[in-house]
Amino acid sequence: MATPSITKLEPFIGKRIRRKEDPRLITGTATYVDDLQLPGMHFAVVVRSPHGAARIKSVDIAAAAAMKGVAMVLTGRDVADLACVPCGASLPGLRVPEHRLLAQDRVYYVGHPVAVVVATDRYIAKDAAEAVEVDYEVLQAVADPEKALAPGAPAVHPQWPDNTAFTFHQEGGDIEKAFAEADVVVKQRITSQRLIPSPLETRGCVAQWHAAEKSLTLHTSTQVPHLVRSLLAQMLGLDENRVRVVAPEVGGGFGCKLNLYAEEALTSHVAMKLGKPIKWIESRRENFLTTIHGRGHVDYYEVAAKKDGTILGIKVKIIQDLGSYHQLLGPAIPTLSVLMIPGLYRAKSMCADVVGVFTNCVPTDAYRGAGRPEATHGIERMVDILAAELKMDPAELRLKNFVRNEEFPFPTATGLIYDTGDYAAPLRKAMETVNYTELRKQQADARKHGKLMGIGMSTYGEICAFGPSPATPAGGWESATVKIEPSGKVTVMTGVSPHGQGEETTFSQITADHLGVPFEDVLVQHGDTAIVQYGIGTFGSRATAVGGPALYYAIQELIIKIKKFGAMLLESDDVSYANGQCTCAKTGKSVSIKEIAGAAYRAMKLPANTEPGLVATYFWEPTNFTFPFGAHIMVAEVDPGTGAIDIKRYVAIDDCGNLINPLVVDGQVHGGVAQGLGQALWEQAVYDDNAQLVSGEFMDYTMPRAHMMPWIESGHTITPTPVNPLGVKGVGEAGTIGASPAAVSAVVDALSPLGVRHIDMPMTPEKIWRLILSKTTGSNA
Amino acid sequence: MIPQQFEYSAPKSLAEALALIADGGKPLSGGMSLIPMMKLRLAAPDRVVDLARIAELSYIREQAGSIHIGATTTHHEVESSAVIRAKCPLLAETASFIGDVQVRNLGTIGGSVAHADPSADYPAALQALEAKIVIKGAASERTVSADDFFVDTFTTALEPGEIVTEVIVPVEAASTGTSYQKLLQPASGFAIVGVAARIQKSGGKITLARVGVTGLSNRAFRAAATEQALTSGTAVQAAADVVAQAIDANSDLYASAEFRAHLAAVYAARAIDAAIRRTS
Questions:
Q1: What residue ranges in A4-105 does DSSP mark as E strands?
Q2: How far apart are CA B236 and CA B273, in angstroms?
Q3: What are the chain B neighbours of A126 within 8 Å (beta carbons)?
C-alpha cells in the first residue's frame, strides 16, 4: 500500500536560530519592572547604613515624615514583628543571625537597610530619605575573612565572637594513605576574590495590595518567581494562592536574583499598610552595596602525587567569606565547591574542611557557577603547579589523570556519580585548534627574544541541571504545560524563568520538533505565577537540562491524547503521529493537528474514556545531575614594562551534550568567558579596613566590556547525557568556570621562566609588574 | 542615582549664560562629570546652566598661526576636525583617547578643561602645546597659559562667575613630531598616566621638547627636567626616567604612587620615541 506523502518538517533542534526574544530587547519595547506605572503608585527609598558596624542610638524621622508628599516612614521598630529574610541552606550547626527587614539596634554592613521612606514620587522619597537622621555609635568592623578568624578580631555578631557561622568536613577514599604514598606534595594558597554580579538591570519591584481580595501582586526582577511567592506568603502571613509574583522582562541575574531580599518583603509590607501600589528600584550604587556578592574564597590546597604524575589525593581548607547575614543559599555555596574538588580526575581520595566566616560585608551567595568556579580554579591551578613541580607538560599531566571513558558512570571521592564523559576529547580539540606543539616551539623562540609569552589551559567539569530534589533545598524538578489551543496554536508554560538564556526560542525548537508543529506557532510563557504552574526557576545551568525534559515529557503525554482523537477521526485503532499529522497505517489517511484540536475542543464526539481539550502538564524529577566538561586554552603576552596582559588567542571547547541552538550556546559561552576573564583580570570587590566598599562604582569596578575581550574561538564536542531524553547537560556557567584558571595559567606560564608558579586574581598590571620586579631584582618593590 | 531638585536653564547667548552663572548657576558643558556627581548627590547645584545651545561657543577656527577652539566643541569634533588633524595632530590624537564614543560625542573641551580632573587626557596635551585658555565672566575677559590654568585637583584659575570660552593651540610646524600615550584605567577610561610629547629636531639633535604629563599627580604638568635632558642630548629612556622626579604621585585602588611613577617613565619614553619617529 502506498504511503501518503507527508512533507517532512525540517528539524529545528540543532539549528542556529535567531532568538524570538531579541526584537523586543533590541528595540527597547520590552517591559521591565521600572516600566510599570500603576494609578496612585508611590515610590519607596531605603535609608542605608554608611558604616560597616555601628550601634543605632536613635533614628529621627520627624523631618522626613513632615515633608510634602511623604506618605510613610518605617524604621526597624515598625518591622520588628515581621518574619526574617529566609535562609534556605541547612548545614549542621549553622548559626543563622536574625535577618530583619530593617536593622534593629545595630547595623552590620555598609548599605544595611535602616528605614524606608515612601512618597508620591521618587525624587521626594530620595530627599526625604536624606532627611532621616540616624545617630550611630561607630564600632570596629572587620572585612577580611582571615582577619575575622584571628583571635581578638571584632565580632560581627556579638553573640558569636569567633565569627564562625559553620564548619563543614567531608572526606572520601583514604586521604592519609594517599599522602603517605606520595612521591611529591604541592601546596598553594589560592584566592577567589569577591565579585559584584552587576546585572544590567538592578533589582526592583512593584507591590500592589488588593484589599478586598486580600491578595498581593508583586512584580519583581527575579530568577525564581514561584519560590519568591512561597517565601513571601510565609513571611507576610498571606495565603500562597493569594500572592501573585511576576518576573517581567529581567535584565540579567547571574545568581544574584536567585533570592528573596528584604526590599521585596518591605515593599509588599508597605503596599499592604498604605493601600497604594509601591515601586522600589535599586540604584546602581545600592546594587554594588546590597545585592549579594559572589565568590569570596581563601583556599589552602595540598595535592599528593606519584613521580609519574598520577594524582593520589587532594586536601583543601576553604575559608568562605559569608558577609554579615545569610541570604537564601549563601552557606551552601562552598559545599558545592567541595563536591567539585575531584574535577575531571580519577584521584579517589579527598578531604575538605570549610569554615564559613561572618564579615561586615554584604552577604555572598550564588554567582554564575556558584562554588564550582572556585573549586575548578583551585584544582586547575594545582594541576599546573604539580606539572611545574614534576617538569611535565600540563596537558600531558591532565590526560594522564582524566577519568577514562570506560569508567562511566564514575563514582567520585565526593559521592557524586559522573554520568558520562570523554574528557580528553575537548582538550585534544583545543590543542589541535591552537596547534599546541607548534605553539610551544613558538614560545621557546619568543623566550629567546626575551618575550614573556604564555600558553595556559584549563580542563573543567561542572555539576549542572540542579538537580535531583533530595540534593536541593527546595525541590530540583521542573514543570511544563503544553496546550494546543482550539486553533492548533501551541502555548508552552514553563516553570523555569528565563532572563536572557533564550528558552522562548529553544523551547519553541523542542516543541516544534517533538510535537511536529511550526516553530512560529509556539508561544512560550514563563515568569508569572498566575499563569504558569508551580516551577523552580532558572539557575545552576538547569533550565534546558531539567525544564527541557519536563517539556519533552509533557509533549509525549499530549501525543497520547492526540492519537486518541486522531484514531477516532480516522476510525482506526492503528494510527501513528508524526510531523503534526495522525495517520492511519491501513488506509494511509491522515488528519492534521489543527483538525484534531478543533475536534478535541468542539467535542461533538469523544474517544472512549477521554475528556475534551488538549492540555498536558508534566513535573519531571531528574535522577542525577549532569556533568558537562570542556577545555579552554589561552595564549597571552605580558608587557614587562607595564605588567599589562595581551590576550593573543582564546579557545573554548565545551561539551554540554546535544545542542538545541548552537547560536544560543555560543552566546552563553561567550558571556561566561567574559565573566571568567573579568574575574581573572579586572573585577574585585574591595572593602577597606573599615569595611567601606572602595570599588563601589563602575568608575572603580572594572566590568569587562566588548572591546576588552579577545576573539573567542568556541567549539564543541558532543557527549549526550543519559540522564534526560534530550541528552542536554546545561551550558550557562561553563564559560565562567573554564576561563579564570585558563587565564591565570597563561600568565603564570608566561612568567614561569622567572620562577613564578601562581598568581592570585585579579591579575592587575601593578601586581604583575611587582611580581616581575621581585623575581628579577629580588626586591619586593 | 536621583539628584536633588534643580533649575535648568539653556540660554542661547553667552551673555545670558554669564549672567545666570554670575547669579550662582553651575555651568554644564557636556555633563560627563557633573551629571554623575549630581546623581550621586556629591554635587547639588540650585541652577544648572547648559551651554550646549550657545552657537557662538562651538567652533574650530584657524587664525594667525593659532587654532581657536570654542568651549562647547565636543571631543569627537576635535578628534575628527580636518584642521586640527592636519595642524595640531597631538590634540586630535589626545581627543581620540578620551573615554568612549558616547563620552566623546557629548563631552566638550571647555567642560573637561574647567573640571580639571587630574586624570583627564586633554591637560597633558594642552601643557605640551603651551596652550592658552580664554576665560570670560559677566564683566571680565582674560587669557591664561595652560600651566597657570591648572592649579590643583579640580581647581583652576577660574574665579566664581567665570567660564572657559575658548582654548587656543598653536599651528604645529610640519616638521614637529607629536604623540600621546596613555595607560587607561579600565573601569573609568581615565588616564592612570598619560604623556603628550612634542619634538622638533635639527641636524639629528632635538631642538625642542615639550612633555606634558597627566594622571600622575594632583595636576597635569610640563616635565621640565625631561625636556631639558632631551634638548641637551640625553638618551630618551634616561630623559624619561626623570619625568616623575620631585612629583608627589597619586595612589589609588588601581595604581600605587610607586607604580604610577614607574609608568610615567615608561609612557614618557614611549611618547617621546613615537614623537621622534614622527619628526621630519
A1: 42-48, 54-60, 70-75
A2: 7
A3: 2
Q: What does the pLDDT look like over A657-703, one tens digit per residue?
A: 999 999 999 999 999 999 999 999 999 999 999 999 999 999 999 99
Q: State whether B42 and B123 are in the same domain.
A: no
- Same domain for B166 and B63: yes
pLDDT at B234 over 50: yes
* Stretch(es) of chain A classified as CATH 3.30.365.10: 297-464+625-777, 468-620
Rounded to whole angstroms, how far apart are CA atoms A143 and A156?
A: 9
Q: Is B5 on the interface with A (CB under 8 A)?
A: yes
- What CATH number should be reported for the domain whose range is A468-620? 3.30.365.10
Domain A42-139+198-290: which CATH class?
Answer: alpha beta
Q: How far is CA B130 from CA B126, B155, B240, in A?
A: 6, 19, 20
Distance from CA of B88 to the nearest CA of A (A): 28
**What is the number of structural domains in chain B?**
3
Q: Is the peptide bond before A39 cis (omega within 30 degrees of 0)?
A: no
* A103 vs A41: CA distance, rounded Å: 26
| A761 close to A767: Cβ distance less than 8 angstroms | no
Identify the CA nearest to B181 among candidates B247, B279, B276, B113: B276
* Close Cβ partners of A716 (under 8 Å, ≥ 6 residues apart): A653, A654, A655, A656, A659, A662, A665
Q: Are A525 and A491 in contact (CB under 8 A)?
A: yes
Average pLDDT, stretch A41-51? 98
Fold observed for domain A297-464+625-777? Aldehyde Oxidoreductase; domain 4 (3.30.365)
Which three-class secondary structure state does DSSP give residue B58?
coil
Please, what is the end-to-end C-alpha distance for chain B in angstroms?
A: 51
Same domain, B165 and B59: yes
Query: How many interface pairs between A and B have CB atoms less than 8 angstroms apart?
Result: 49
Q: What are phi and psi of A626, to 5 degrees?
A: -110, 160
Distance CA B19, CA B9 (A): 12
Say whether B253 and A694 touch across the interface (CB within 8 A): yes
Residues of A in contact with B266 (CB under 8 A): 641-642
Give the residue on B whose Cα is nearest the Cα of A695.
B253
Q: Which of B4, B41, B259 sits opposite A769 (nearest CB)?
A: B259
DSSP annotation of A519: G
The Cα A596–Cα A615 span in angstroms is 13
What is the least distance, in Å, from the CA of A285 to any CA of chain B?
7
Residues B158 and B193 in one domain: no
pLDDT band at A780 (very low <50, low <70, confident <90, very high): low
Residues 6+ apart with CB under 8 A from A476: A466, A467, A468, A469, A470, A536, A542, A546, A621, A622
Q: Which of A694, A702, A781 sits opposite B258 (nearest CB)?
A: A781
Q: Considering only CA atoms, which of B37, B42, B45, B48 is closest in space to residue B9?
A: B48
**Dihedral sign for Cα atoms in the order B243, B246, B251, B255:** positive
Please give the ipTM for the structure prediction: 0.94
- Are B184 and B248 in the same domain? yes
Q: Do the chains contact at B187 and A700, CB–CB below 8 Å?
A: yes
Do A143 and A359 touch, CB atoms closer than 8 A? Answer: yes
Domain with CATH 3.90.1170.50 in chain A: 42-139+198-290
Select from A61, A64, A118, A67 the least CA-distant residue to A272.
A118
Question: Can you read off the three cell numbers belonging to residue A408?
Answer: 562511566
Tens of pLDDT, residue by residue over A203-228, are 999 999 999 999 999 999 999 999 99
**What is the domain range of residue B30?**
7-50
**A227 exposure class (CB count in 10 Å sphere: 0-12, 13-18, 19+):** buried
Distance between CA atoms of A459 and A426, rounded to whole angstroms? 8
Name the residue in chain A with its Cα closest to that of B257: A766
B191 CB near a chain A CB, below 8 Å?
A: no
